[in-house]
Each structure stands twice: as structure tokens, then as C-alpha cells.
Amino acid sequence: MTMRHIIFHIDVNSAYLSWTAIEYLKRGEEDLRGIPCIIGGDKKSRHGVVLAKSIPAKAYGVRTGEPVVSAFRKCPMLRLEPPDHKMYARYSKRLMELLKSYTPDIEQLSIDECFLDFTGIAHRFSTPIDAAFEIKNRIREELGFTVNIGISTNKLLAKMASDFQKPDRVHTLFPEEIRDKMWPLDISELYMAGRASVEVLRKLEIRTIGELARSDPDYLEIHLKSHGRLLWEFANGRGDDIVKAVGEEAKGIGNSTTLSEDAKTEEEAKKVLLMLAQSVGRRLRKAGKKAGSITVEIRYATFRNVSHQMQVTPSAQSDTILYQRACELFGELWDGTPIRLLGIRASRLEEESAPQQMNLFDYLEEVRETKNERKQDQKHRKLDRALDEIRKKFGDDAVMRAAFLKKQEKKEEKDPQDQG
User: Fold this and answer.
1) Whole-angstrom Cα distance, residue 104 to residue 168?
2) Which of 278, 280, 312, 279 is nearest to 294 (CA)?
3) Residue 414: what pLDDT?
4) Cis peptide before 314, with omega less than 30 degrees from 0?
5) pLDDT tens for residues 120-150?
6) With contact defined as beta carbons under 8 Å apart, do 7 and 155 qualify?
7) Are 149 and 135 spatial neighbours (Cβ–Cβ below 8 Å)?
8) What is the mean pLDDT of residues 57-75?
9) 152-183 tens-digit pLDDT
10) SS3 breakdown of the chain: % helix, strand, coil, rounded to 5?
11) One of 29, 66, 97, 113 is an active-site residue; which one?
């Protein structure tokens, strides 16, 4: 009997605060994790947002992402420490080195979380739970901070499991446990269920993950488009079980830009995403590749980085499709904080001539795809290639999207030197 696929999701508990606390303990100071404390903002002006919080701060209602000023209203005796991203990178590197002593099959999601494919090393341990406790305890004893480890058969469920009770815990969420452990949770607890989606679902009287799982996916799609079906699949525990190691992920094609002025509105951000999607799409077509996955990265004005990834089914190289997927990810990711940098990365690349490999989710998408949609995709491809040729001959600015043209016209109207 072959063992089923087992994946760990490893997440550092309040990473920025934990790592800062360790540095202070080295100096003989008190443990910041044991007092009301936050990381973020400016110490003198108290501007910025909360990047991380201690458990005592959480008891006062302090939330990650809220303005520092608001946090101090809730807890006047709060201690504020500034972020140190170079130090965080050092601790993250030590964590990954420890994990790689077990297996190279690690997909790092961010500075403080990753997936680990346990399947290949399962024979070395009595159970996955025993292995998770060994890893968790080694991290605490050797590196000085705690993690949560979620265990399941795919990445979605492993990530959901690691978000259960914290800190310093190991949780399982196997398919047979979904009904008891995941379905009773509020809909806002589901991965990728952002504020906007949650509002729509609650208007539809869907309040728990279980109610979402039992809903009609076609009905959800009417209200939330493709994201509605994605959330339905997640609510039913369906997710990717392929852990992409660093080497494979590095084969992607991406582009990012630091903005001259922070983007403060969705409209401003989406214009940048459109520009980036065009750039990435053009490079994909030049390389003869299609993307099976897309990632959107945001760096806030506070220098906090966040990113989300989603599957592109079927694989694509069209500017339009890349832009649409990027906007979906952005809508679920952005918390309203001014944006300093935006990036799009296409990964899981395959040859554009390669036949489409289909899993269950791909099949569901294919069944729903109409002839009209396929014709539309062909039009996108022809248009993209025509635009590529024009830009190749006459330069990148030879053809401009209407969104950028309107922006330029407004700028010219405001500039008195351009008025005749």
C-alpha cells in the first residue's frame, strides 16, 4: 500500500516580533513576547501600521495591519519597536537551512513561511506528527523562536491547519477531518477569502466554510466570477499538492517596479499591474513559454512585503489573462495601505506548443469553457503578437493602452507649459 502525499506548512509565530525579541534577550533585556509590544511604524511620530504583535498586545484587540495610532488608543502602555529587515532575513535563512537538513523539497512562500514535502522522508519517522514535533522543537531550542506546523495531503489544507490555535503547535487537517475541523469556521477564515469576497458571501447568507462548501459553484460564479469557484474548491479541501523547490521557481519570468509616488487607490495600482502584465506577457511570448501560475507581490510604504499566488488554468501568455488574474490576486491581497512596489511573476513555465496537462480542476475549467471564450482567447493571442511586432519596430511607447493615455492627458492638462 502506497503512502498518500503528505505536506507540511511551517509558519513562524509573529515572526518580526519573535526575531526582534531574541535580539533583545541577547542584550539581557526582557522578552518582548511577554509584554504588550508591536513592530512597525516610526517610534517618535507613531505613524505607520502594525507589522507584528505580541500575544499580550493581541489581548487588547491590537490587530496586524491597523494604524499604530489606533493600536496605542487600545493599549497606551504598548511598546513599539521599529522593523529590521536585514535581521529578519538572517533568521529566515537559518530557518531554511535547518529545514533543508531534512529535505530539499521546500517551497518558500515568504520570509517566515514555507511548504515542506514530507512524503519522501516519511520512512524515517513513525508518523508525520512525530516528525512535525521534532522539527518544531528543534526550531524552538536551536533558533529560539516558535512555529506552527500544519499537516495535510495538499498545500491548501496544510496552510489552513497551521492557522489553527497558536503558538508553538502542530495541527492536522486531513480530508476526513474537514467536516469537523474546517467547515464550522467563519467564512473569513478560509484562505484567499478577502474582505470583498466575504462581504458578498455574507449577503448571500453564507457565513461558514461548510455553508460555502455545500453551495452551488455555478451560483457562486455568478456573484464572484472565477474566484467564487476557487473559494468553493478550497472550502471542499481541493488544492495543489506539488511543492515547488527554489530551483524550479527561479525559472519564472517576472517584473516589478518601485513607484515614484505611493499608489493609494485601486485604480492607480491596476494601471501599474496592466503595465507589468504587458511586460511579462511580452517576455513569455518572446521565450515561447506559457505560465501555469502567477504571483502578485506588494511592498507597502511601510516596507512590509506580501504576496499571493494562483494557478492559471489553462496555462497562458496573454496580457489580458495575466492582467485579469493579477487583479484577482490584488483584490484579495491589498489591505488599503499605500503601495511602494508592485510585481508580477509568471512561473510553472511550459512550452507554448506543449499539450495541456489537466488535473481535476483544469478539467472543470475546460468543461465550462465555451466556444466563444476559446475564440476570444485566440483573438487575445493574435492582438498581443501584433502589438509585439509594432513595439519591436517602433519602440515600446508606439502603442499605448487607453488607461495610460487618459492618465497622460490629465497630466498634460495640468501642466501649464504644455498649453498653447
Assistant:
1) 23
2) 312
3) 43
4) yes
5) 899 999 999 999 999 999 999 999 999 999 9
6) yes
7) yes
8) 92
9) 999 999 999 999 999 999 999 999 999 999 99
10) 50, 20, 30
11) 113
Average pLDDT over residues 378-399: 54
Q: Are 351 and 286 in contact (CB under 8 A)?
A: no
- What pLDDT is attached to residue 366? 45
Strand 79-81 vs strand 37-39: parallel, antiparallel, or unpaired?
A: parallel
DSSP string, 4-27: PP-EEEEEETTHHHHHHHHHHHHT
**What is the C-alpha separation between 109 and 113, in angstroms, rounded?**
6
| Residue 177: active-site member | no
3-state secondary structure 202-226: HHCCCCEHHHHHCCCHHHHHHHHHH
Q: Show the cell assigned to 202.
A: 455574507
Quote the cell numbers at residue 73.
488608543
Instruction: Give CA 256 to chain center in angstroms.
Output: 16
User: What number is the average pLDDT over the span 179-197?
Assistant: 93
**H helix or E strand, kind and range, residue 386:** helix 371-394
* Neighbour count for residue 279 (Cβ, 10 Å): 19
Cα distances from 375 to residues 102, 367, 370, 378, 381, in angstroms, run 48, 15, 9, 5, 10
Pairing type for strands 170-172 and 147-152 reads: parallel
For 126, the grid coordinates are 513513525
- The vertex-46 CA angle with 44 and 50, nearest 5°, equals 135
Model pLDDT, residue 168 = 96
Question: What DSSP character marks residue 126?
Answer: S
Total Cβ atoms within 10 A of residue 154: 19
The grid coordinates of residue 339 equal 503601495
Pull the grid cell for residue 308: 499571493
- As a whole number of angstroms, the distance between CA 102 and CA 84 comes to 29
Q: Which residues does residue 58 pair with via DSSP β-bridges, in sequence order?
A: none
User: Three-state DSSP class for 160?
Assistant: helix
Cα three-residue angle 249-250-256, rounded to 5 degrees: 105
The model's pTM is 0.64
Q: How many residues can be counted in the chain?
A: 420
Q: What is the mean pLDDT of the chain?
A: 84
Q: In whole angstroms, give the CA distance from residue 146 to residue 107.
A: 19
d(C-alpha 320, C-alpha 324), whole Å = 6
* Distances from the Cα of 244 to the Cα of 41, 102, 106, 252, 277, angstroms: 34, 16, 7, 12, 23
Q: Which of 326, 331, 328 is nearest to 343 (CA)?
A: 326
**Residue 241, all three cell numbers:** 499538492
Whether 46 and 70 have beta carbons less than 8 Å apart is answered as: no
- Say what percent of the chain tops pLDDT 90: 56
